[in-house]
Amino acid sequence: MTAIAVTIAGSDSGGGAGIQADLKTFSALGVYGASVITALTAQNTLGVQGIHDVPPDFVAQQMDSVFSDLAVGAVKIGMLSRPAVIEAVAHGLERHGIRRIVLDPVMVAASGDRLLVPEAVDTLKQALLPKALLVTPNLPEAAAILDEAMADDDRTMVRQAERILALGPTAVLLKGGHGTGAQSIDILVDADGVHRFIAPRITTRNTHGTGCTLSSAIAAGLAKDLLLADAVAAGKNFITAAIRASTTLQIGNGHGPVHHFHAYWS
Q1: Which one is catalytic: 7, 25, 136, 207?
Q2: Is 212 a catalytic residue?
Q3: Among 1, 32, 59, 209, which residue has the fewest nearby CB atoms (within 10 Å)?
Q4: Fold for domain 4-248?
C-alpha cells in the first residue's frame, strides 16, 4: 500500500512554506501527497502581500473529494485563517473519521505577517486541538494559545506544553527554534511524559517554511506507520538537515526557504 498524507493548509506563491513546502516534504520522504487548499497567499521571501480565503464550503468539498477516494494515512493541518474555515475542517475530519492529525497552529509567517485573525484562536482551541494526535506550536504560538508570555527556559516550555495538552490533543511538541543557545530543543509531552529532541542551532536567515516542513515530515512518518516519537525524531532530523543545506540555495531577497530536496540535488 502506498503511504499517503494530506496537507490542509494555505498556498504560498513563493513556494517556501504552506502547501508547497508540505508537498515537497512528503515527496522527499517517499510519501504520496494530496492537498486541501484553505487560502491563497500572495507571498515571497520578503513577506505576505495578500491573503484570499477559500470559501468554507469549497474547503469541505475538497476534503470530501480527497478522503472519499484516497486511503489517507495521516493529515497535516497548517494555515486556517478564519473561524468558519476552521469549523469546516473540523467537521470534515469528523465526517471522515480521520485520527492521525498533526496540527501546526500557524499564526505568523517568518516575515512577521499575521496569518490567523485574532478571533480565530478560540475556535482553533475548541474545534481542532481536541482532535489532534499532535499539536506543534512554536514558542510565540504557544504563548498566543495560552495568552501568556513566551517561554524562555526549559521549565516554562514544559509547563506550557502541559497546559496545551490539557486542552485535548494526544500530544504536544513545543518547538524551541525561537529560543537561544547553542542547541535547538523541541519538547514532546504526552501521556508517557516529557521527551526532548535536540539538534545544533543553525544560524541562517533561511527559515521560511521551517514549521510547515517539520509538521509535514512528522505526518509523513505517521503515514508510513511510525510510532509518534519515532516520527517526531525523523522529522527533527529532516528539518535540521534541510536548514543546514539551505545555505546552498539562493532564493529571493529575504527569509529564504529550507532545502527540502537536500538529499537529491547536487
Answers
A1: 207
A2: yes
A3: 1
A4: UDP-N-acetylmuramoyl-L-alanine:D-glutamate ligase (3.40.1190)
pLDDT of residue 107: 76
Whole-prediction pTM: 0.95
What residues have CB less than 8 Å from 92, skipping those under 6 apart? 59, 60, 63, 64, 67
Confidence (pLDDT) at 1: 86
Active-site choice (212, 221, 235, 256): 212
Q: Which of 179, 16, 19, 29 shows the shortest CA–CA distance to 104?
A: 19
Given its phi and psi angles, is residue 112 left (phi above 0), alpha (psi -120 to 50 degrees) or beta?
A: left
Q: What nine digits make up the cell of 42?
A: 500572495
199-235, pLDDT tens digit by residue?
Answer: 999 989 999 999 999 999 999 999 999 999 999 999 9
Residue ranges per domain, the chain? 4-248
**207 given a catalytic annotation:** yes
